[in-house]
């Protein structure tokens, strides 16, 4: 009888222990950090968060959206940037890269739309303006042209996690130009084989920060019609080079809040144009042609982009 009672007691004790463990597992605080910590495919991300000192941030109350890179994504990132391990990544740089994966508002998969959002990261161009992220939903969800969302809506108590297949580096002017399909003609112009190495210039830090007034594809189509040219290749080399440089201001991160009426702007090309703000921000170029600034403040790590609806000419 005593042995039977002992056996029953042991069974009940075991059941209690198993139930308690199960309850603990079900009831732990499922904040962003804890979810990452429990997912084997986020072990590199957890290590990065710990190294960057962001664990407390991602455990705190909030409404975060986190685009979480997989282990394979981190491995590819380290290899592409010449790091033998995560420990070789400078902590300050790693912190901003991780924050570049985080939004301050919770965005579920059904709410994701094409366009720009602001991350929690900052770059060298501005200590006060957060970096922009471009989300393209035309074929799945692609971020900054480099990272695809592979799993969505991992719910957390302080937000939501979406898994991605690539680490999202700090975006340069070139990153955002190439990510947005509305700039394909601009990119084609910048990379035409008889142009200076604009990709190197606008992705680098020499002469930065840059302010770029970026014409849309429609703006370029309008220019070709205006000049009676058959295509981009028909624009003379000197004309195209000077025109592209005329859209760039070097050494200044000029946000929309910095624009003033009758503001005279000196460009990377050396020429000037005038900005007016009455009735909406506009540019009057050297040939007295007017272009509207139709979107503003795409913040990059080495500058800022404003979108215009007409190519301006020096």
From TrEMBL:
It comes from Cloacibacterium normanense. Residues 1-22 form the signal peptide. GO terms for cellular component: extracellular space. Keywords: Signal. It comes from the Bacteria. This is Fasciclin domain protein. The lineage of its organism: Bacteria, Pseudomonadati, Bacteroidota, Flavobacteriia, Flavobacteriales. Residues 29-168, 170-312 form the FAS1 domain. SUPFAM superfamilies: FAS1 domain. SMART domains: FAS1.
